[in-house]
Prior knowledge:
Structural class: alpha/beta
Oligomer: single chain
Strand order of the largest sheet: 3-4-1-5
Shape: elongated
Radius of gyration: 24 Å
Distance between the termini: 34 Å
Number of helices: 15
Order of helices and strands: EEHHHHHHHHHEEEEEEHHEHHEEHH
Helix content: 40-55%
Amino acid sequence: MSIVLDLGELGPADLTAGPSALSELMASLHVLAEPEHHPEAADWTARAAAAGPELRDELSVFAPLWARFRCRLFFPRTVPLAASLDEELAAIGELPKDAFLELVAPGVLGTSAQSVPPARELRAGTAAAEDYTRRCLRRSYARGELARQLVAAPLELRDRLLAVLRAADTAFFAEDWRTLRPALEGHAREVRRRLAVRSPAEVLTELLPTAARVGPGERVRLDKLQIDEVKVAPRPLVLVPSARVWPHLTVKNEHPSCVVVQYAARGTVPSGQLTLRDLHHRLMALTSPARMELCRHLLGEPITTSELAARLGSSEPQVSRALRTLRDAGLVRSTRDGKLVRHRLATDVIQRLGNDVLATVAR
């Protein structure tokens, strides 16, 4: 599955990069809401939760807005980008009822697979609003309750959300942002420099480890649990670097103002991030009992192909083919020792697939 961005017809004025305090706050709240998905941020999560324990209940009410399907409300809608969180929150506070509904209602539903009625139809008591609320409830009780409140009193919900965001800023985010912002701004300046002299497709494939050029023209494929093709122009493309969004990559295409890509900035991504295709190859390489047995022999010490064949009672060509499959998947490393080539399991790579996988190989 993937999203393809068609970047053709974008001029220099249509491309910008910069951090967004509101988008970073949203990414931080996602980590706080789903800590089991972000073990790399365990220390930060513990500090943030301890700094604002009184926020727990209110944050849980709004948690559907920063779940996997991020609410469009938290991403830039103007270029140039806002200078501060206060400016971004003030812009939300000025949104009229229908504009707030249009931005938030899809986020409450939490999927692009189902359509949301126009804001003018989301009025308490209408058939459209009742159907929308029922669909949200089918997804989860929290989404259903939030949908009910949104339909009943959108501006009251807006003000309540703003109060929660400001409280989170006071409790833990403001201090965090003072630390994160300089590095993100420096990263964004470098991205803008590249965008001024290189094509947007080249820049994106350098920035995003799982991005790849596809087909003719300025088209880039992004590994995502979605299937879509997005024609960016005539809207601008806004690249928002983040320190908290990893391992997610967010593409927001639904608003007419701009297309936004929020991605993990340089220095915040563990090395060796896989594409979906690479992960598939590694997992498939381990599904063969014969290759799994071979891995067990490679775990203890470097071994030659002939030694492996003798141990396994197989022919050298058979062992060579199995080794090639494992090596192509990055699971085996081969080194030359004079006239001999010795093979050894890449245990660090196996470890990244999961402790249970390594334990199964090692048992």
